[in-house]
Protein 1
Amino acid sequence: MKNVISDVEDRLRAGDSKLTARRELVLKVLLENSDKHLSAEEVYNLVKRRAPEMGLATVYRALELFQEFDIIHAIDFGDGRKRYEFGSGKGKIHHHHHLICTKCGGITEVNEDLLEDLENRVSRQHHFTITDHQLKIFGICRQCTGK
């Protein structure tokens, strides 16, 4: 975790920003829950346990800043709420997709690039430089199917 925090601090400093104590707390909550796709409100509730004085607006500003520096990115899984996960970093290609259960709202990551062939074909045919893609597959998870 220390390495990630140090890397984030360096990236922010290079962009004339800094990692304040409050921003670091938001970052730590995201790191500790990196296996989840937290909404801003969920991040806020977790931060609030450690820093009751921190406001929701501060959490939103930290999330916006982290997005601006491609530390995290927001995804809408069809429920109208942005959820956050760590970005792939500048110049790197994002290679995972999401399965979203329409009953329980569960999210499962598929950690392989399912669209590489399609991306290459589209890029060649349309002379289009693809920088990223997202694939969201909606259905019913194993637990909900069994109910």
Protein 2
Amino acid sequence: MEAFRVLIVDDIKSNLMVMAKCLQGLCEVIKAHNGRDCLELARTHPQPDLILLDVRMPDMDGHAVCKELKASPETESIPVIFVTGNDSEEDEEQGLLLGAIDYITKPIRPVIVRARVSVHMQLKQQRDKLRFMALHDQLTGLFNRYFLTENAEVRLAHFRRHKTPLSVVLMDIDKFKSINDTYGHEMGDLVLMAVAELLENNTRREDVVARLGGEEFVILMECPLDAAMVKVEKLRQQMEQLMPQGLMVTGSFGVVDACAEVMELNPLLKRADECVYQAKDQGRNQVVGWCSKPAALQELNYKGN
């Protein structure tokens, strides 16, 4: 598990040293001397898990920094604790309304700082776990249908604006029901996990691999159809050689690309499903593609042995 990262932001060096000492051994500490540096570090991966933000700083105070953090989708989920010498109700209310989760008042009391940070570390880890469960398939750890739908909407919107190529891949494990019927559902689960691992490990970071349900998987690839077909054919060959638990497992793949006529996920999945059915009708263990030029369809088919 990666170390919990806390970003401390203060324009006074001695304050940074005191706060860092308070958290020694509890978490990884990174430091920023002003608001601009804080914003830059908050956007740098790996991002901080928590920010301790001084309110009174020159040029850009803590309130302005917090406001900008919460206005950006990239940083809005990072919890912020204000550190301030002003303990008035009005000041605390303003900070909480801006999105801060807590207040630590000066002078710094090490026991309090450590306790507050420890509590929010646990809360953050619990939120991250719940978020992971909400967006991922419980068995395989791949993204689930909910995340796939949300991510596809963003990518298709980008396609509509900028014509960035997007291909959608649907894969169905061949004769999966017979695996469950012959060897049991536990063996079926092991096959699903092995196939999921293969798909995840052999696609690019920018690709989205999701379990649609049952033995169906979907991959979103930001590339043209012909390039996607080449990549998917390699996946088909790797899957053919996988032999999870000593079983021969193959898949039928359907590949489609977003185009002016089809720019929504469900119609794309429907066409990809038609390609999968065609692959199965032609003997399974093959890749069938669909594009807006039907004459090119046959050229985009790959068949296994």
Protein 3
Amino acid sequence: MGHQLSTLTSASSRTSHIPSPADELSDEELQNHIMNAKEEDCVGEMPELDILGSPQVYRLRPHALVAKYIATDPSNEVYIMQLVQQNTTVPVPQVRRVLPDRIRGVGFWLVMDYIDGECLLAIWSKLGWWRRLQVICALRSYIRQLQQIPLPPKNAPGPFDGTGRPLSCLGGHFRDRVGPFPTYAAMAAWHDEQNHRYQVDCNIESGGTFFWPYSKFDTSAPLVLCHFDLHLRNIMLDKKNRVWLIDWAYAGAYPFWFEYVPFGFWANAASPDRRTPRSFARFLDFIVGSCASWYFNNYITKLDSRPMGFRHFVIDNDHFIKQGVDPKLYQPVDVARPSQCQIMVQKCLDLFCDTLMGVNALFVVD
């Protein structure tokens, strides 16, 4: 299905790709370019937003290449990018080389083709309404294509690489590294545990008088490939008006509605400077579709709105049993799932939108 990236212990790991003059550069030459990169070579820098520092992505002049630093094993990111390239029409940067970081002694550099364009956050306000509509339709098409990519046979949730091993989940509401989860049920149980932990904490704080109700995680949707870090800084528009998706570090196998999670968080960011423009956010339901916003608004925001510290508190899982509490008072009240009526209406809307996009070539970004 995709080229399996070998363990990154050698000087470099080459990936399957379209030939390029950049392939003639040795590892040593690329390392020198990386070490000599200057501050002005930083790509994607937005000082007003980069509170924790600029992204460590540098243009390797005079070549049409960039180098991106990754602190951990990048095999899943490279593998999934190759998977997307081989199974879809989604424009994804071509990885040319994976090199160990010689300065830090830890981490790696992904050397990729340079995309001559701007991120959507920087350019969105400059686009006309027709170009905006084309970008939005392209994003919807990309997400539909990602969902059709065959997943590895193991079908475990979260990031994955060519080895078939499940990897820890990052991004979205996971925040800290979580997992890995060997099965879909295990990931669902983690979500239910977070709700139960909070329920116990609330009960103790109230002196045993309050039972916070919660819904079980919905496992009815199959696992599909999700980028899981889509926001306007990870979407680029190049000089030929093609829409690119970058930064696949969090990508993995998740239920379809996880694709809405980063979109939703950025649309509701506390800082107006970081918040997704409303002129884009109003199309999120169209872009992701399939009742994804319902899951975000009715499940994820409730799960994520609590102090992160409670996830690390030591709690007694048998708290309610030891207190002799009636299970009906603390067990999940239902499954977090939209009504059948909402699902059917959304399916009809999705069918109509996909049909319209399929017959109208003007909606395709050139």
Protein 4
Amino acid sequence: MKAKLFFSFVAALVISFAAYAQEPAADSVAEKVIVTTHDGVVRVGVIVSDDGREILLETENLGKIYIAKSDVKTIRPFAESDRIDVTGEYQGNDPFSTRYYFTTNALPIRKGEDYGMLNLYGPEVHFSLADNFSAGIMSTWIASPFVGVFKVSIPTRNEKVSFGIGTLLGSSGYLNNFKGAGALHWGMVTLGDRRSNITFSAGYLYVGTGTESYYAKPGVYPVTPDEFGGYYPNIPYQSEKNGMAKAPSFSIAGVTPVGSKSSFIFDSMFFVASQYRRSSMWHDNFDSNGMLTSVRISDESGYEKFSALVLMPGVRFQHREGRAFQIALAGVTVFQDGEVNSFPLPNCSWFFKI
């Protein structure tokens, strides 16, 4: 009798442990996933069960639905850049959320979100090399000049605040025999998330063409009649490599959704540039009879200063996942020597996920 009671107790204990083991832990958090079927339908939810033949997906808008495994094309984790409207319908993924038009924000390019971009002036590609480090290449349609891009993202405990530093290193390429070069180093802070944010940037630009200029050596030079009846001063000329243009730079950029598949983008750049240039001033000397006797050349070299403001409001359209198109009605204003000159610079770009 005692043996039967003992075995009954053990059996009951085993059954209760088995039942408990089949229940999910109270503190476990199911991962939200995106399920795409071969017919292009996308569902977002939590996988409740998977028996190898079909999955039971619990969605926010449709409740629990069964999907045959043979119909499933991909299953991937739900990302921060994925968009869902108020009804729970999936609106797509934005792998281009780190980019405005020309500038970038401090958010990192994540694994699997490498992208390419085709502009009217040329192509570019950007890759994630680590969790918070990315690199890219920009060029023109003639493959010169070309620029290397590197960015380090610095997250904070506040998900709405991110810092970053970046650099552009460029060469003129085969144009001018690789003599031209330049760089732009900058830091930035981004406020907001991947769908809606604003970024403040500041940096320093320097660029040189690698070309040379010829200028007359300062001095006083006598003039003599030439074979055409005029006067020819024997003036020596010198050449000097043109200096680099240097400019502090500033930028404010942002993005915000204006629809389920479109976003308003604002980008801007402001440069305060200076460049040392060689220049000469010619002064004619005449005698008492009004005859030209000599030419005096003075050195008028100095720093040429100017400022440039580029404003780029635009709209980005993303009608399918992994593809986007944007257009910007940009304008450029140049301030130099008290004069202001402006001209339009409209452009458009095509994004594609690599």
